[in-house]
Design goal:
Layout lengths: L21 E3 L5 E3 L14 H16 L5 H34 L9 H19 L2
Antiparallel strand pairs: 1-2
Length: about 130
């Protein structure tokens, strides 16, 4: 593991993880699990969003030597934004899952629709538990 000028460890790409049909494992290899969450794709955030926050966090780390307090404030802001976006994404995914099996009026979801919804709930919960 190499460090940077701030004495902090460098980002380790082999520890990346995704929440989606492809799963990155500890060796850095991506395995297609063939699963989607809620039937609407797997990632909770786009690559562009993740890249934006990664760059901002790298900026905070690289600026530590010249402005340690400012670096920490920037890192705190990035974490706050990521947490808020993640919470919004999970809430939206849950809302989508709920509407897949809840019906209005006299309509009733068939057993297969309910089974698929339960599978999607389980997969999402298991992925969140692995974070």
């Amino acid at each position: 593991m190499t460090g940077n000028m701030a004495g902090l460890p460098a980002k380790q790409p082999e520890r990346e993880s995704t929440v989606g049909p492809d799963t990155t494992i500890g060796s850095g290899k991506t395995v297609d699990t063939g699963k989607t969450i809620g039937g609407s794709g797997g990632r909770l955030m786009s690559h562009d969003e993740a890249d934006k926050w990664t760059l901002r966090l790298q900026h905070a780390v690289s600026g530590f030597v010249d402005g340690p307090r400012e670096s920490l404030e920037e890192a705190d802001q990035v974490l706050e934004e990521v947490t808020a976006r993640f919470t919004d994404a999970v809430t939206q995914r849950r809302r989508t899952l709920r509407t897949s099996w809840q019906t209005t009026g006299d309509e009733k979801a068939d057993t297969e629709q309910l089974r698929l919804a339960l599978r999607d709930y389980r997969e999402l919960a298991e992925r969140l538990l692995r974070i």
